[in-house]
Task: structure prediction
Amino acid sequence: MALNDLEAKASWLRQELFKMAMRQKKGHIPSSFSCTEILIALYYGGIAKITRGQPEDPNRDRVIVSKGHAAMSQYPILADYDFFPKEELERFTQKDGLLGMYADFRIPGIEGVSGSLGHGVGMGAGFAMAARQDNNFYNTFVIVGDGECYEGSIWESAMFAAHRKLDNLIVIVDRNELCIMGKTEELLELGDLENKWRSFGWHSCSVDGHSFDELMPALNLVGKTDKKPLAIIANTVKGKGVSFMEGRSEWHNRMPSDKQIIEARMELGIEL
Result:
């Protein structure tokens, strides 16, 4: 897709996510909105190899949303790829539906489950190691939250991946500088994440996580990192697209009022 088409697709995804959440008044909207462009770049920018209608294609690239509270961010995309009926989006979190608040392996296209944070990089390293041992050529992409980088398991897996030279593993850090309790740099300073990943033996770079002009060149570094796994620090805004949610931790799992719903729908371009 051309860049303007990717931008249109990002708008579509935010609209679909908001409508899903409002039907049941459930979901983590700001956390999903901050990684919207990242997912669109992977699935529609020619980066991740995904075959429409074939979620079990053995040659597919693996995409893991390790920040599990944003699992819903994949659902409209997976439905758009014909992995399950689009009608399931209307049953989000309902007892008779397929799609829960947190993802599980019943859902075609879901490669990893992360209700508890910190496990996605380890799962991704496992996929990458298996591909290497089986002489397969798929890549594994893992989206992690910056608050999730507090978890020691992230850095244990990072050491393993660098030691094994898993250049088929790509971690994208959704660096919105917020977690449920507040600002990451006030709660427990993460510092320069680009240099931190580099110090663990990764090739790393920083980009504007809402700019396809910056995301696409970074993602095109896959396979060109001198046998190092790739870490992309995507600087984002939590709640991007809805002004009263942007950059505010209190909206982590909060639902808008009726008046705010109208305001959000207008900003997102959803018909009233």
